[in-house]
Structure formats: structure tokens, C-alpha cells
Specification:
Length: 253
């Protein structure tokens, strides 16, 4: 791996089980468990030679955590130049510049760079919170764009994923369970047929706080599988064995 100097406020975090390191600045934006779980949840089609696109990549965590699973190109799409620059430096740090790249653009404007219908897999950890009359956004601009649907909403995200994907290509997304009805509606209206759903719980006996979704472009309707629940912490606030395996073990092989 390449050694890089860090700017003020930056730190290096990583995923031991994948031996991947991510440069980020907590004052701007930091990835969390949802990024790790999305990259783990996303399957590999065939031998993984097709192109993967990570929409709204932030500092690149989802795409970089997923990249060791495939042999094809991975494109990280990020609108914010500061986050895109950190993602590029993380690519260099991990020695992945031969097949992982950053596209610093609004995802609505990427089709001159990525041919429609050419992508095997799309990943996204999008903004979770819709805008309405009572929305209170974070004062930090970087967090506002990452957490609130200021630049992209679910219907437009689904449309972009549909346009990128080949027929039978797959779209993987992590979101909040309280948006599940919106997710199903947005996907169904854009020929993205949901096939797998997994709920993530902070602790047993509590409500789910994340949902992982797999959809297939132009797939057959029906046949949705609800996977066993994934529980992050035990009663002592330690990671559960399954979560430990994802973070530190061999759950990716």
C-alpha cells in the first residue's frame, strides 16, 4: 500500500477483514456500519468481471470494501469534491488505481462517462431523510448532502440505477426501514424487482434500524426473500459473533 500524508482533521479507518483503509475527516463525513454491511450484503454476479458503480460514494467506503470481491472495474460517483478527493487518495493508499476510479459529478450527469446499460452492479448508501416542511438539516453542508435528499431522492436514484444497469443487472442499497414503502414503490415503477431483503437490528428485541435491499433490473415480479435478521450488538454492547465475523473474520469469502 502507498503511504500518504494526512491533511488536518483527517484520519485513517478501515475494515480488517478486507484489509482496506479509508481516509476520512469526521468534521466532513464518516462512513459507518451501514457501508460495511452493504458491501458485505452485495453479491457478485458470475466471476465479477462486469463493471460496478457506487452512487453517492462519499469517501469511497462501500465501493472500496466491495472491490476485493470482484475483478472488474469499480467507479465511485461522488458530487462533493472534498469527499471525492479523499476517495481518490484512499484508492491510491490501497493500491487499487488500476481498476477503481472516482467520478466527481452529480450522479444525474454521469452518462457521458458511463454508457447506459453497461453496468453489472450498482451500489448505493444514499441520503436517508426526505425533505419536507418540517425537515431540520444538519448545519454542516457535507453532512446535509450525505443525510438529506437535497440532490437526489429515491425515485431519481432508482431511475439512474435502472439506466446504468444491464438487463438482469443488480442494484444493492442500504436504507432506513421506515422508508420501505417508498423504496418498493420507487423500484417497482422503474423495473427494479426486489428479490432479497435483510433487516439489521442494533440489539435483539428492538426495532430494525437498517434494511438491505437487492433488486434486479427487469426481473420477474414476486419471489422476494426475507433473509434472517442481522443483529449488531449483544446485551453487553459487544459485537455479536456474526458481526465480528463480518468486521474481522472470513465472512467475505
Amino acid at each position: 500500500m502507498t503511504e500518504l500524508s494526512l491533511a488536518s482533521g483527517e484520519r485513517i479507518d478501515g475494515l480488517p477483514s478486507q484489509n482496506i483503509k479509508i481516509i476520512q475527516n469526521p468534521d466532513m463525513f464518516s462512513y459507518s456500519l451501514d457501508a460495511i454491511l452493504l458491501a458485505h450484503f452485495a453479491d457478485v454476479k458470475g466471476k465479477g468481471r462486469g463493471q460496478t458503480v457506487d452512487l453517492g460514494a462519499g469517501t469511497g467506503a462501500v465501493g472500496l470494501f466491495y472491490a476485493p470481491k470482484v475483478s472488474g472495474r469499480v467507479t465511485l460517483v461522488e458530487i462533493q469534491p472534498e469527499l471525492a478527493a479523499m476517495a481518490q487518495r484512499s484508492i491510491d493508499l490501497n493500491g487499487m488505481s488500476d481498476r477503481v476510479s472516482v467520478l466527481q459529478k452529480d450522479m444525474k450527469n454521469i452518462f457521458e462517462d458511463i454508457k447506459p446499460g453497461s453496468v453489472e452492479t450498482v451500489l448505493s448508501n444514499p441520503p436517508y431523510f426526505p425533505l419536507n416542511g418540517t425537515t431540520k438539516t444538519n448545519h454542516d453542508h457535507h453532512y446535509e448532502l450525505a443525510r438529506h435528499e437535497l440532490k437526489i431522492d429515491l425515485p431519481n436514484l432508482a431511475q439512474i440505477a435502472n439506466k446504468l444497469l444491464k438487463n438482469n443487472g443488480k442494484f444493492y442499497m442500504v436504507h432506513r426501514p421506515d422508508r420501505l414503502a417508498d423504496i418498493f414503490a420507487a423500484f417497482a415503477n422503474r423495473k427494479l424487482m426486489i428479490k432479497r431483503v435483510q433487516f439489521v437490528y442494533g440489539k435483539a428485541g428492538r426495532e430494525a434500524n437498517m434494511v438491505l435491499v437487492e433488486a434486479i433490473k427487469s426481473g420477474r415480479p414476486g419471489g422476494v426473500r426475507i433473509l434472517p435478521a442481522l443483529i449488531a450488538y449483544d446485551e453487553k454492547n459487544d459485537y455479536t459473533p456474526e458481526m465480528n465475523n463480518i468486521l474481522y473474520g472470513k465472512a467475505w469469502s
